[in-house]
Amino acid sequence: MKYTLLVLAALALPGAALAQTDKVKVKVKTKGQPVGSPVGRYPGGIAPHGSVPMPDPLPDPPAPGAGIRPPGPVPAPPPDYAVPYADRYITQEHLRRDLTVLASDEYEGRETGTRGQKMAAEYISKQFAADSLVAPVAANAANPYLQTFGLEHSAWQPGGALTAGGKAYEWLKDFYAFGRSPFEQATAVQPVFVGYGIEQGDYSDYKGRDVQGKDLLVLLGEPRTAEGKSILSPDGSPTKWSVDFRAKAALAAQKGARSIFFVTQETADKFEKTTARLAPRVMQPTIAFADQPGGRAPAFFVSPALGLKLLGASAAALQQYATATAAAQKPVASKFQPVRFSISAPQQRSTVTTENVLGFLPGTDLKDEILVVSAHYDHLGIIGGEVYNGADDDGSGTVGVLSIAQAFAKAARSGHAPRRSLLFLAHTGEEKGLLGSEYYTDHPVFPLANTVTDLNIDMIGRTDEAHAGKPDYVYVIGSDKLSSQLHAALQETNRQHGNVDLDFRFNDPADPNRFYYRSDHYNFARKGIPVAFFFSGVHADYHEASDEISKIEFNKLEARARLVFFLAWDLANRDVRPVVDSNKP
Questions:
Q1: Do 482 and 355 have their domain in common?
Q2: Which of 151, 377, 521, 566 would suit a FRET pair with 428, their CA atoms being 20 to 30 Å apart?
Q3: Computed from CA positions of residues 522, 528, 529, 533, in that sequence, does the dihedral angle turn out positive or negative?
Q4: Can you tell me the distance from the alpha carbon of 515 to that of 535, in angstroms, rounded to the nearest whole number?
Q5: Secondary structure of the chain: what % helix, strand, coil (to 5)?
């Protein structure tokens, strides 16, 4: 999963994001990792899902109260068949076994379109096969567990340049960018200033403006009072417009803009340090759908000095504009006179393929209805010679899905098949902008009309700062957005089986993190399918090379994966699918 603050958010969710080059010197990490290669530990690099030494089929659990005559005419409740399968197959041992493989350096960070990602896809598909799940992608004769599709691989090239007012400015010193460049050749640009580039309620920097095909100059951040409080939120807290520049880039694209140039009011020294830190990631190749309509406008970030030059303004005039806008609590006219400039920002482009991995378990009397249990298995790959293994993001969710799939498969083989069918779906391309889930929901293998819910797992292996030292917990996001019945089922399941602290704080539409929009469940939700997103929060190792298996709290990972399993068991076997009865933001 991906993240937030201004420029750093670009390294995250939706949209074209980072990929890796083919040739790179890799620093292999050994500290805190299990001894020995996991690829060599198991035949073919595959952990023994199909040969776990456990009794199969499991004996039926005794009914509660067995051997005791129930008082009066009230019958004893039916036996809870889910419990023994959770106890036997969703265990710390099983979760560690798979994560030791997938989060190892041999898998090279599992970046979309790379060898490591394809190794992970092969591993997951072999586990599904070992559990006797059906391979449902008939169009792929070579491996029908894989849904293959194409993406565009692009990389910024050295030598980008910008000239304004007769002065030359340098790529990765005075400016950098994210997205698909519209400036392959030197291009003359007459920019248009649109304030903060915000449209929210009665506040609109675009009102009365036609920016179709234009290149925009936009201030980073949002209007704030002298005390630093946002004028766009009831309590003065930062809104998405401050936290995530991508919201502005998406709005600019909706308005038809060709590109967006962000002007910062930070110090020159801070911009220089930020640029130096981001340079390796900026130069990482990116992956996205080719020529996809909509999306986000290419985003260019310019130094404070270059920003003032492009605006045709002084620092004092810019501050006066910001102060006046905050005082008026609406956009105000500016006296800026943006200058014409020339820019070249070349990219190299090619086509790559990637794969979602699907394992299908047919149901019984309600088999035409499908319950999806999902996680993304891709991560960031190799950056600056270091492998980003993504043990938590989202190795933890991926191994959770594998264990849940095995538990359901063992139950079915023992005569306890679910009434509804289950699709276990490992997405690719999440780190590049939810690409795998977008492709699946636009090209579903099973009808979306028959898809009852998506239970999505993304990062469930750690403890965030807000819960340090507290009992086990999990954030659940989106369960109340479309279906009150799903939300109620989650709470009842947790009461019966989980007793985990369910934290719903990120359901708040005003949450500046916008987590609801930042993992694969969202592409199901936008199609009107109820969702629940399970998440343990961000931490210091999020999107860092230090997100390693040695830091995973397997006891908590086990508890959270079991909660998802029990909820899936309930949803797969209840008489009626969750009804869509709301559409909360």
A1: yes
A2: 566
A3: positive
A4: 9
A5: 35, 20, 45
307 and 239 share one domain: yes
Last residue of a domain, one of 289, 313, 345: 345
What gap in Å lies between CA 546 and CA 274, rounded to an integer?
20
> Which CATH number do you get for residue 309?
3.50.30.30
Strands 473-477 and 501-503: parallel
Whether 291 and 357 share a structural domain: no
Confirm if 249 and 260 have CB atoms less than 8 A apart: yes
pTM of the model: 0.80
**Residue 163 in 3-state DSSP?**
strand
The per-residue pLDDT for 8 is 38
What CA–CA distance (Å, rounded) separates 584 from 487?
13
Copy the structure tokens of residue 573. 């076997």
CATH for 85: 3.40.630.10
What is the pLDDT at residue 144? Answer: 98
Contact by Cβ (8 Å): 433, 523? no
Residue type for position 409: A
- pLDDT tens digits along 334-343: 999 999 999 9
How many angstroms separate the CA atoms of 407 and 415, rounded? 13
Q: How far apart are CA 252 and CA 492, in angstroms?
A: 43
For residue 188, the cross-strand partners are 342
Given 301, 316, 345, which residue is the final one in a domain?
345
C-alpha distances out from residue 373 to 230, 455, 537, Å = 39, 5, 19
Residue 130 forms part of a structural domain: yes
For the record, the structure tokens of 234 come out as 């009831």
Q: Is residue 24 part of a domain?
A: no
Low-confidence stretches of the chain (pLDDT beneath 50): 3-25, 31-36, 43, 51-55, 62-71, 74, 76
Burial of 445 (0-12, 13-18, 19+ CB in 10 A): middle
175 and 244 co-located in one domain: yes
Distance CA 533, CA 563 (A): 12
**Dist CA 465 CA 536 (whole Å):** 10
For 171-205, write each residue's pLDDT tens digit: 999 999 999 999 999 999 999 999 999 999 999 99
Q: State whether 261 and 300 are in the same domain.
A: yes
Residues 431 and 181: their CA atoms lie apart, in Å, by 20
Domain boundaries, position 258: 158-345
How many structural domains compose the chain? 2
Residue 474 pairs with which residues in a beta bridge? 502
Q: How far is CA 228 from CA 232, 242, 271, 486, in A?
A: 12, 12, 20, 40
Within this chain, do residues 138 and 239 fall inside the same structural domain, yes or no?
no
Residues 520, 541 within the same domain: yes
Same domain (yes/no): 447, 522 = yes
The H helix count followed by the E strand count for the chain is: 14, 23
pLDDT, residue 68, reads 42
DSSP structure class, residue 205 = T
